[in-house]
Amino acid sequence: MNKIFSLIIIILCFENSVYALDVKTHEILNQYIAEQNFQNIDFDLNTYLKRDIGFENGVNTLIKFKYIFKWLGEGGIKEDLPGRLTIPYARSLNHFHDPLTDQGFSGLPGMEQLGIESSVIWSQLPVGGQYFGDYSWHDVRSYFYFALTHPENKFREEYFAHMFRGLGQLMHLVEDASVPAHTRNDTHVLSAPYEDWAKTNIQLNPSTGEITVAGEPLEIKDSRANFFAYSDLLQTAGGFQGAEVPVANLMDTNRYRMGQNPDTEPDPGVTMERIDGFSAIGLAEYTNANFLSADTMFDDYPYPKAEHCEIRLENPPDDGIPDLDRQYLSSSIGHPGERLEHLAVVSYLDHFRKLYFPQVSSEMIGVGLDAACHKEYAQKLIPRAVGYSAGLLKYFFRGDINLIPDEENSDLGFVVENNSDEEISGNFRLYYDAADGYRKLIWSRNFSLDSKDSVTGGNRSDNISFGVEFDAAEPGKFILAFKGTSGLETKSVETDSTPHIGAVAGKVISGPALEINASDEGVYAFTDMDRDLEDPMSRGFDRIALQVKNISGQDMDMTGGTIRLGIKYKIGQGDQFRNDPPEPSGDFYYIHHSLAGTYEIPRDQPLKLTFDLSDTPVPLYATDVYLYVVYEGPIGSQTGTCIGFKDISEPTPVHIKNYMDKVCLYGDLYDAGSQEALAQVDSGTVDVYAHDLENIYIKFWPMNGEMPILSAVTPSVTNNHVVSYLGAGEHKVIYFLGDSLFRFSVTEGQTIKIDDRDGFSHMDTNEYLGVVTFNSIINQHEAIEPEDPSYIPGGENIVREFPQEYFQAVDIENYYLKDNHLIRYPIDMQCILE
């Protein structure tokens, strides 16, 4: 309570000194910056928002009923006037920075007890560390990340609003470093002459969109000197404990300093140094060394010096005394820094003292600042306030990441590409927007990428594969988000008491999309090969059938391009159809198959495709199987590439077993036709003889179709496969590649007598017995997400998933077993098949 009371007293006493440029001036500057293309530093916020964040209207995008450029302008106001239930200008006490002492506002003794910070430190306080609003650099970074990743859109909009407002407030701090009073600890009480003048004389010309000073347009964008050297910003960490993010250099580079010897003065010449034409000095340093303020003239700071000035006479047109020349102090002859024609003005009283009191000493002449001084100050300082603030935005949005086809892998899958000037390391996440309005995570990975200039290609990640989610609101739209370390902007470590997420980058990717589904056959491939007769590590599925559909947004018609199939897999080093199968090969194998001609991929119905893989079959022992369909050709008005992806099942076995070599009588199992079996029943009452089977029809049904009406289906016509003959006690295995779930029907087959003693008749209808749904085999390696409790930082973080559902039945290790015609008597009796 005492602290807040003290703040109120200070603000009442020093109200004119704690605010720098008027809030409306800040609003004008911020909105101007938001709408400009700064070609000198290659930054245009409008273009960035359209290209990377997916805001089609750029800075004219409405967020929470306000345009983005208006939010930046509001930030310029709110840094001084946070709003209701706050103390006006309380935050403004933290808007001072003296580059020679590194101190903030120190107008009264004991102010350090109030927690008042230098603007450099204030701008980088930890998350939640500011009062009357959380808008430090680290706060705003967090808002950006949550705006990209929060599940609910209403909260993402909230975070975007906070982010843009917060950027406006950070720009406000940079702009205040262009005000001499705020870099020279000027605690003047009665007035703020330069700031008052700027309020009415710095305007935005509505017809030209340019900033004017006293009615004259400012030269801002053409001069590199108005911008801080971006290359230097990337290479130089902030030189302050608690403000290590390089943007601290925009205000203070620690180059304009007092020497180690107290008698050694700083060198204003450093404030004029350039790197390729760009300024290499902090704005507070430039302002302190080259300009004066109302209450800090020549005796308060080392520079500017009176002895470096000469007096020049001018007759200001608007001073109300037309016949009296004024004496201006010009620093244009000896000052080693920025030279001004109107550094200060000699008081009118000096003229009348000489006229009427010549005997009075003239060693102490009164000097101050008038409109001519303010105008020249603004012409020098406002362009830098704009340029340096634009540099802050460029640095904040410097992250440049993208998701592109994996060219090194024939476009099978994607890679994350770093197009920025810095190495980045941290967490990458990919999201999509679902039809229910929620943003959902697809994958999350931790890795590092070199800068875009990497000669080794280290700016691209390993292959990443993912498909279009079934509930995507906009198929082909994905949101890539990064948080971590980028260059010298680092994330906090776990031991930090004030954690922050570090740098943030985002990319909204909107492109064409393909949907892949199994064919009308219900599976992509099947085979009945005998793995005892053929090599399951090289032979297997020699035909792939699928359906592909264009589910892109409007104006992305695929009217006639080439199509190729890609299959990515590993090879199991041993029997994969048992529990705890041997590990597969470490490397992936690839199959590429191009179709002849060109194809249109329609929207209204899928295109059905079949690929002959006789020369390069998918092995029966394949694991980690992925399908890709790559379309290359016209996409709307352009030519491009679209990649469809499907994580299909691994080879899944279905066993068909003829159990009619056994009979189940009163709960015990007997060999069919044996004397023991015949003795259990009255002669001619129960068929206890062995039988063969023929024409067992098998059918897989598409999971994305309606449940079939079996009564309307003729198995001999509608089937995927037929087991033409299956002797008593024999079994047959078919294998398929499908989706994660499969539908399956089978007939019992037609019974064939093989025992001459069998006098029973059989009336087999051989219809499908029903439709059953099962899980297909998953036998692949999965990445452990960083959010998983089992995730080990720096570890491999890969786990293998495989089934533990094989069971033993009659010397066969099965995944799914369909038994046919086991005779039971009484009918409800059960026997254990061993």
Describe the model:
The structure is a single chain. With 834 residues, this protein is α+β, with helices and mostly antiparallel strands. It folds into four domains: 2-308 and 371-395, no CATH class; 401-510; 518-648, no CATH class; 653-825, no CATH class. It has 14 helices and 45 strands. The strands form 15 sheets. Strands 24, 25, 26, 29 and 30 form a five-stranded antiparallel sheet that branches. Strands 34, 35, 37, 38 and 39 form a five-stranded antiparallel sheet that branches. Strand 5 and strand 6 (211-213) form a beta hairpin. Helix 4 packs across helix 7 (153-176) and helix 7 packs antiparallel against helix 13 (371-396). The longest helix has 26 residues, at 371-396. Residues 9-19 have low confidence and may be disordered.
